């Protein structure tokens, strides 16, 4: 009986550690996706044709970008300086 109890404890502990690792991986993947989306938006804005003046992004788009930036700041993905720099770019384009 002690062997089965020990095996159950070890198995249960391994299960919980595995769940924590997977949760951490899922959070990392979500953060990376948010970063990729922001970078794609910035690249798209950077490569717009220079001949025609770029249309100002809508207020809703700007607010959505600011909300994403704030989320990344709160999650520790961005530093305060990075957040401030990106926020300023968005506000200047409004």
Low-pLDDT residue spans? none
State the domain count.
1
Which oligomerization state do the chains in this entry correspond to? Answer: single chain
Largest sheet: none
Please state the overall shape, judged from the principal axes of the Cα atoms.
rod-shaped
Tell me the span between the first and last alpha carbons: 70 Å
Total count of strands: 0
Percent range of helical residues:
over 70%
Structural class category = mainly alpha
Strand content: under 5%
Sequence of secondary-structure elements: HHH
Radius of gyration: 22 Å
Our count of helices gives 3
Overall residue-averaged pLDDT value: 83
Provide tags for this entry.
mainly alpha; 3 helices; 94 residues
Secondary structure blueprint with pairings:
Blueprint: H1 2-46, H2 59-74, H3 80-92
If you had to describe this structure to a student in words, what would you say it looks like?
With 94 residues, the protein is mainly α. The protein has one domain (2-92). Helices cover 79% and strands 0% of the residues. The protein is built from three helices and no strands. The chain starts with a helix and ends with a helix. 3% of the residues are buried.
Summarize this, please?
The chain is mainly alpha-helical and about 90 residues long. It is built from three helices and no strands.
């Amino acid at each position: 009986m002690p062997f089965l109890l020990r095996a159950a404890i070890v198995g249960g502990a391994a299960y919980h550690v595995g769940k924590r690792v997977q949760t951490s991986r899922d959070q990392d993947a979500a953060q990376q996706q948010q970063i990729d989306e922001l970078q794609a938006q910035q690249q798209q804005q950077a490569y717009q044709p220079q001949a025609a003046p770029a249309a100002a992004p809508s207020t809703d788009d700007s607010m959505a970008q600011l909300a994403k930036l704030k989320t990344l700041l709160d999650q520790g993905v961005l530093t305060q300086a990075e957040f401030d720099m990106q926020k300023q770019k968005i506000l200047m384009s409004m």
